């Protein structure tokens, strides 16, 4: 029988440079709680998830102060220089036969419904997959502007087949570990888990999610995250 144990891996070892804040973005407070606490609350309240491995930076001084710091479902480990190094460090603590559900610390607004939809689809198809949204904007590719004073358009992409990848991304632990390892050996830059699996020839499933599953990256994302968390009943404004 297929092993249906799910371990969530939460990479939270980034410094959040694009946020221009001295505090890593996962520790910025929205209302009464930090971004990471909302993210972990969402995962902790799903009984399908048996364990949560949170990957923090070696010099993290904040995690131990969080309300969930000593939760029995949470295990801590240290991350690396890139997101995929951090995810790999988390995978090393998970059982090879389990499923890894990797979710960015910086996506606190993901809904239970979307996480459950991903899990349901992956189990029904017995194939890894990711949450994603269809691209609705017209997407331009720029010329190589290292040579130019200002960015200029090279071409317009056909958006019919374009999706914006989100998280969670769900794969068998063993497969993901092997694919990240292989991609690293070839010096392939990985910005998500699916790209590691694609590198190994896989075609992960695309499971459409709501647009509220934003990644808090820049300052202007915070009011939007606050609004979504309010609509979901997590905070009062
Ligand atoms: O930088 P980016 O927004 O893509 O980061 C996505 C997630 O990966 C964040 O939750 C961040 O904390 C995490 N990360 C990590 N280790 C790194 C870089 C990013 O765990 N070295």
What is the topology?
Blueprint: E1 6-12, E2 29-30, E3 33-34, H1 35-44, E4 49-56, E5 74-78, H2 83-91, E6 99-102, H3 112-125, E7 129-134, E8 140-142, E9 153-156, E10 163-172, H4 173-185, H5 193-199, E11 205-208, H6 221-231
Parallel strand pairs: 1-4, 1-6, 4-5, 7-11
Antiparallel strand pairs: 2-3, 6-10, 7-10, 8-9
The structure holds cytidine-5'-monophosphate (C5P).
The site of cytidine-5'-monophosphate has 17 residues, from β1 and α2.
Share of helix among residues? 25-40%
Report the β-strand fraction as a percent range.
Answer: 15-25%
Order of helices and strands: EEEHEEHEHEEEEHHEH
**Main CATH class:** Alpha Beta
CATH-derived topology: Spore Coat Polysaccharide Biosynthesis Protein SpsA, Chain A
Throw out a few tags for this protein.
alpha/beta; Spore Coat Polysaccharide Biosynthesis Protein SpsA, Chain A; 6 helices; 11 strands; globular; binds cytidine-5'-monophosphate
Description:
A hairpin with a 2-residue loop joins β2 and β3. This protein has one domain: Alpha-Beta Complex (Spore Coat Polysaccharide Biosynthesis Protein SpsA, Chain A), CATH 3.90.550.10. α4 crosses α5. The chain is an alpha/beta fold and 237 residues long. The protein is globular and about 55 Å long. The protein has six helices and eleven strands. It starts with 5 loop residues before the first strand and ends in a 6-residue tail after the last helix. The protein is 27% helix and 23% strand. The strands form three sheets. The protein has a seven-stranded mixed β-sheet with strand order 5-4-1-6-10-7-11, sandwiched between helices. The protein has a two-stranded antiparallel sheet with strand order 2-3. A two-stranded antiparallel ribbon has the order 8-9. Bound molecules: cytidine-5'-monophosphate. Cytidine-5'-monophosphate binds next to β1 and α2. The site of cytidine-5'-monophosphate (C5P) has 17 residues, from β1 and α2.
